[in-house]
Amino acid sequence: MIERRWMERAVELARRSLEEGTYPVGAVLTDAEGRLVAEGRNRVLPTGDPTAHAEVEALRGAAAWFRAQGGDRRRRRGEALTLYTTLEPCLMCGGAILFAQVGAVAWGSDDPYGGSHRILQAQSHYDGHRGRWSRSRTFAEPFPDLAREVRALMRQWEERRGRLEEFAWPEPEEAR
Ligand SMILES: [Zn+2]
């Protein structure tokens, strides 16, 4: 089940990234019971690390969470996890999501400039929990008002960089 409160939390984290002068993207991972596992936000520009995307940070946090749980290494799989990210994952994060075998991915807004939606839908991973090949379930723009909020953040960011003409970030309904 996709819960609004976690997408709202991801938007909060995205806002914090914008305040820190980098791409406004936030991500939250929850377990099968809908409890918080890890959070992340974009830190690319403050750290100079091109891989410091919100989703990667959250997945690293989840690895620490799994280690802290101890137990069987085989249980350290992502199938039971749900990833909430403000923006459709990029190619790198889409790959990381597949390698982590994340069961469900929800994003606040589609990314018309480079999302990995098609890759996530085309690729499967071995789901040890169910004993079969499985795909990450995807939920694009589940909350229309939050989709608009995410795009407003992206517009603010592009405006700040003077690239709003290149990356216009239309309202979700205009893009369809
Ligand atoms: Zn990414």
TrEMBL record:
InterPro entries: APOBEC/CMP_deaminase_Zn-bd, CMP_dCMP_dom, Cytidine_deaminase-like. Transmembrane segments: none annotated. Keywords: Hydrolase, Metal-binding, Zinc. GO terms for molecular function: tRNA-specific adenosine-34 deaminase activity; zinc ion binding. The keyword Hydrolase applies. Signal peptide: none annotated. This is tRNA-specific adenosine deaminase. The lineage of its organism: Bacteria, Thermotogati, Deinococcota, Deinococci, Thermales.
